User: Which sequence fits this backbone?
């Protein structure tokens, strides 16, 4: 039994991981921003699957509800409203692709080699994280209360800033 | 938890059977909710509904299904094809997936297998439903944009902005119930509503838990989430032709249609589970009847909720778009937060 | 049992894809989405470490990262809308002078 559980864990990790990386590469390859946005939603969904494998069920749910279901909807709205078309290839972007992609490939291969060789093969079990969301709530409201309150003020500032920045200038003029 | 651990093959077999039964029942329920709506709205408007096809028009959904299959599936040339085809599928998949965490009864023993009447009992079941509802917005937004027509784009943007706004009020109205039950698992929330108090009043969250304001907030947010009257401006015929599904015909339109009614049923099931006590009701009779009666009580509550949905549809006029957004953000959201604060204070004071 | 390094490699790959997108893309919204991809990669490594050390604080930090990312996306997209209104373009190569 444990052997097949091991295999299942590795299999699920690889499945979600491949979908994740495919979505990330698709984001880079696609020319129209709406396709990139939808690939990013796929990446977030498969990351939610990875979080579930690690046992972080509440974080996985919040990832789907907040990140994939609200932040990315905002991105999709803006892409639809501004009617962004496909991108053109300019001189600067050709240079960037020529140097950037091989550079990042080499950098990431180096990083991967360092990580696999040196960080040790301590294994993480499936569902390793403890506890129901209750414990997270306890931590959030006892040990991390100050960051929580500060973050809520930050969100309020962000809302006010977004409303002011995106408001039409004519409506401001009409009031005066 | 209860139950013996099943072997892997038996677990998969039982799950497949449960999925098949649940999908079958859900699709039939969707078809007959359409029939119910046409009959009830018809009677409210002082006319018969469908009466020709079968007794009381009961075979009308069958006729509608045949019509949708044989209708010409026209794809306009100016649409963005990949998303045009994917959007109704996204909407339908999200609408049908929510049924997987909804419990309809107690644990039963069928042929020696002890299993709950639910496809899977996750301990974040409620959050899964909220997450799937959030993903359903993509179906609407992408349908509106990919149709490449101004009515569709405006309708799609308005509908998705409305859905995103009312999701917040929906989620916050449920937090009061979560505080009372102490868990996200739908089965545990229902189990916390068993029994009666003061002798005969059942301990549903709407009475004993004091969540009647939360129930009404949930009701109104649910009408807005599922784009039903009085919040159906984005798809009203007199306003935006047909909103985001203007350019869709035949099977794809049928997918949107089914998704809307499946969302209604999911929301009705959730309201029955969280506020009206789930499947608890008087149990009597032999053992087989006692296993089936909870399903009947649950179905009765869902039917009552759907009837209220349809009744409101036949009675109220629709909101204008700015009235709709103001209602969601300036009225329902502060009220839901106030309900949450009061519930938390009462629970903390009692313990 | 999946070794921790596999999770870190996946997180590193996502981060590298985010940086690549930030460098090579010319549409301002896609650049923004690459930033979100980088943040997601970092979230994954936080949760992986939290699972290894059985500490819940890693998940708390993930919440804060998500909230900050949401706030940043909001304000950033509002700025993009404002820039689009004046410059009529979403190409970063054409938004390179302070004067129109």
Assistant:
């Amino acid at each position: 039994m444990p052997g097949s559980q091991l295999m299942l864990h590795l299999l699920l990790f690889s499945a979600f991981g491949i979908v994740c990386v495919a979505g990330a590469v698709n984001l880079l390859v696609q020319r129209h921003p709406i396709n990139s946005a939808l690939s990013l939603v796929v990446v977030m969904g498969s990351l939610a699957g990875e979080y579930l494998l690690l046992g972080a069920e509440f974080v996985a749910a919040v990832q789907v509800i907040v990140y994939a279901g609200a932040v990315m909807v905002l991105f999709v709205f803006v892409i639809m409203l501004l009617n962004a078309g496909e991108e053109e290839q300019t001189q600067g972007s050709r240079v960037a692709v020529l140097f950037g992609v091989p550079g990042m490939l080499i950098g990431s291969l180096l990083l991967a080699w360092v990580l696999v060789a040196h960080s040790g093969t301590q294994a993480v079990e499936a569902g390793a994280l403890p506890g129901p969301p209750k414990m997270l709530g306890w931590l959030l409201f006892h040990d991390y209360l100050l960051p929580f309150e500060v973050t809520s003020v930050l969100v309020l500032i962000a809302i006010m800033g977004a409303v002011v920045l995106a408001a039409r200038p004519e409506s401001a003029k009409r009031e005066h | 938890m209860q139950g013996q651990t099943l072997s892997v093959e038996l677990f998969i077999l039982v799950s497949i059977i449960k999925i098949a039964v649940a999908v079958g029942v859900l699709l039939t329920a969707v078809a007959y909710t359409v029939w119910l709506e046409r009959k009830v709205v018809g009677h409210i408007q002082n006319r018969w509904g469908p009466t020709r096809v079968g007794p009381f028009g009961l075979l009308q959904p069958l006729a509608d299904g045949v019509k949708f299959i044989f209708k010409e599936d026209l794809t306009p040339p100016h649409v963005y094809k990949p998303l045009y085809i994917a959007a109704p599928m996204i909407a339908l998949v999200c609408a049908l997936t929510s049924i997987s965490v909804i419990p309809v009864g107690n644990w039963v023993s069928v042929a020696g297998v002890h299993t709950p009447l639910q496809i899977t009992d996750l301990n974040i079941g409620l959050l899964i439903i909220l997450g799937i509802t959030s993903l359903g917005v993509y179906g609407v937004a992408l349908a509106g944009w990919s149709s490449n027509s101004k009515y569709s784009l405006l309708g799609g943007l308005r509908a998705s902005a409305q859905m995103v706004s009312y999701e917040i009020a929906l989620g916050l109205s449920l937090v009061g119930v979560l505080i009372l039950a102490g868990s996200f698992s739908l089965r545990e929330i229902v189990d916390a509503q068993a029994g009666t108090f003061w002798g005969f009043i059942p301990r549903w969250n709407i009475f004993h838990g004091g969540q009647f304001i939360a129930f009404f907030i949930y009701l109104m947010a649910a009408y807005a989430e599922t784009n039903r009257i009085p919040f159906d401006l984005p798809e009203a015929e007199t306003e935006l032709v047909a909103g985001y599904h203007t350019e869709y015909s035949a099977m794809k339109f049928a997918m949107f249609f089914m998704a809307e009614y499946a969302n209604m049923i999911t929301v009705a099931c959730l309201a029955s589970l969280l506020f009206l006590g789930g499947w608890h009701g008087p149990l009597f009779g032999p053992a087989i009847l006692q296993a089936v009666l909870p399903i009947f009580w649950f179905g009765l509550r869902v039917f009552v909720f759907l009837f209220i949905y349809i009744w409101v549809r036949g009675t109220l006029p629709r909101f204008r778009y700015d009235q709709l957004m103001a209602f969601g953000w300036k009225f329902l959201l502060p009220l839901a937060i106030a309900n949450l604060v009061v519930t938390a204070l009462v629970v903390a004071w009692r313990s | 049992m999946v070794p921790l390094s596999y999770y870190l490699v996946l997180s590193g790959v996502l981060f590298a894809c985010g940086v690549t997108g930030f460098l090579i893309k010319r549409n301002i919204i896609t650049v923004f989405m690459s930033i979100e991809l980088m943040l997601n990669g970092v979230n994954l490594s936080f949760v992986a470490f939290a699972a290894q050390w059985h500490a819940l604080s890693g998940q708390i930090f993930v919440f804060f990262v998500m909230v900050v990312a949401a706030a940043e996306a909001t304000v950033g997209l509002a700025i993009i809308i404002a820039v689009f209104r004046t410059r009529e373009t979403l190409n970063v190569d054409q938004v390179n002078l302070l004067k129109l």
Chains C and B do not touch (no CB pair under 8 Å).
